[in-house]
Sequence to fold (309 residues):
Amino acid sequence: MGSATTIAPGLTTTEASFIEEARSHGQLFIEQPYDLYSKENHQAWASLYRRITPRWERYANARFLEGIRALRLDPLRVPRLEDVNRFLCPLTGFEARAVAGYVPAFLFFDCLRNRQFPTTITIRRSDRLDYLPEPDIFHDIAGHVPMHTDPAFADTLVRFGRCAHTAAELVSGVKDESEKLRRLSSIQNALQRFFWFTIEFGLMRGEKAGELKAYGSGLMSSYGEIVHCLESPDVQRYPIQMEWVVNQHFEIDHYQPLLFVVNDFEHLFELLGQLEQWMKDGKLDNVTPGWRDMSEADVRSFLDASLNK
Ligand SMILES: [Fe+2]
Fold:
């Protein structure tokens, strides 16, 4: 028998030893080791890009399509983040920055406040293009980043970041530890639900009366769900309502049965202002508890931030 350790070639989701190594060092941002992408990785990108393009033309909102054009992504090869940023930065100041894995909630929002988007650099296997529980570079760059070219959308992300700071500040004044944790969990649930039902899975009014388009990144990066979210009679679609969204559970392992519609990105930006005001008014202190416990790393990231306030 030879060596028991085989180094997996490429930067494939859950199979990249480079990522495991970087994660073990606990760094937030890493370099994108572009030469490590294998032929199969580039093929996966090319297949994903080729098959979804006609669906973007049909189902994506106009600003997403403008963003795709502005970024000039190569349809055939995994993008280099520095190339993406060369076109993105001058438009809104946002930049995609490579990370080694999951970024705890507060840190994630704080990056947005600084116009940095934590970006996964691994890509799904080329023989499993459809189902992937983890984010990958196709989701992050082709799904999220085109909207970051839009000023109102970019400002909305920054407002999410400010909301996270406001949350940490508000709970920093609570003396009783269990009350602090309870209130923090409630606010965090509200924030994450709002992020989920807008940035990840939001719908938007189209230009024609009664027409709907998709903008959420989970929809824009899914070949199946981008159609399902707009065509299926099984999906309920409602004009967005703050009190509903902050109390609404979601599950991540199947197509979304319930989606919310914003008028445009200016509307979304205003809603974030309302969310922050509700937080300050104590209206997010008692939202419906989550079905799953929040990850300890997420809660800890907010508690640590509150200590510095
Ligand atoms: Fe996402």
Remarks:
- The chain is about 50% helix and 10% strand.
- The beta strands are 95-99, 116-120, 203-205, 212-214, 236-239, 258-262.
- Residues 81 and 223 are 23 Å apart (CA to CA).
